Amino acid sequence: MSHVHEAASSSTGAGRLPGPEAVLSVEGLNKRYGSLVAVDGISFQVPRGETFGIVGPNGAGKTTTLEMIEGLRTPDAGRITLLGLDAVRQRRAVQERIGVQLQSQALWPELTVEETLKTFRALFRRRVSLERLLERFSLVDKRRSLVRALSGGQKQRLSVATALVNDPEAVFLDEPTTGLDPQARHSFWDLIRDMRREGKTVIITTHYMEEAEALCDRVAIMDHGRIMALDTPRQLVRDLAFDNTVECSFNAPVDRERLLALPAVRDMRSEDGAYFLFTNDVSATLGGLMGLADNSGQRVQGLQVRTATLEDVFISLTGRRLRD
User: Fold this and answer.
1) Taking burial as the number of CB atoms within 10 A of a residue's CB, which of 51, 145, 191, 226 is the most buried?
2) Are 55 and 311 in contact (CB under 8 A)?
3) The whole model's pTM is what?
């Protein structure tokens, strides 16, 4: 849908932020691996104090983008300005002032929690109190425990604690809640909200749309190395031409044109036998859907109705769901 695509460039929340206020500015960033274009000429800015999300499926280019910003990979083209510095040419100066939590936890299983934090603190001139870190991440009782003995949630808290040992101005979190159970994930969200309240700029990648909606001031939806849309979660959903999504499946394939002709259906997508009907009148669409099933002799096997979300923005842009 073109109106969603336009959010990436025309919305006031999307791209044109005052230069001095931008903690991060990315211009024309590109990264290629042979014939694979991992990141395809993307541009965006992040102002101070914002929680900015890069959302997309595995392979969308999210991690590659973050690693270029963090100085872990060299871009093939483009410019990255971070904290007023050239992030490529002044990499070491930048790294002193940022915090990085990698997607693959860089933790040594045979060290204790305390030894891990001391090791990371030794890498920086500016250092946060060890006791403060242990208390903040609820690891005081685990300070002498080996990393390999920690639960998944505890390891993840420790991983983020290592990203804050230098009291960074900007924090980068790459898929920080992947693999966590719902309770641990929501607990982790509180830690990210705390960072925002402290005035830190947080850049987070995730493939959980509800996470992006809950945490992020603005979201860039990324797929195949490109930013498909960029705005606040609320505005991205508001810009859709529909209010609700009816997800359904049948015992046999249904012609696309018959579904598009249902009352109040503005558009539709299909994937793996599931049909997504984007509608402005759920009652009318459901009535038409039941009538279609009766007249065709088909049986509705699955039916779900929901208010439009970021997930639906992604489906409308790409024609597929964002899977774990």
Assistant:
1) 51
2) no
3) 0.85
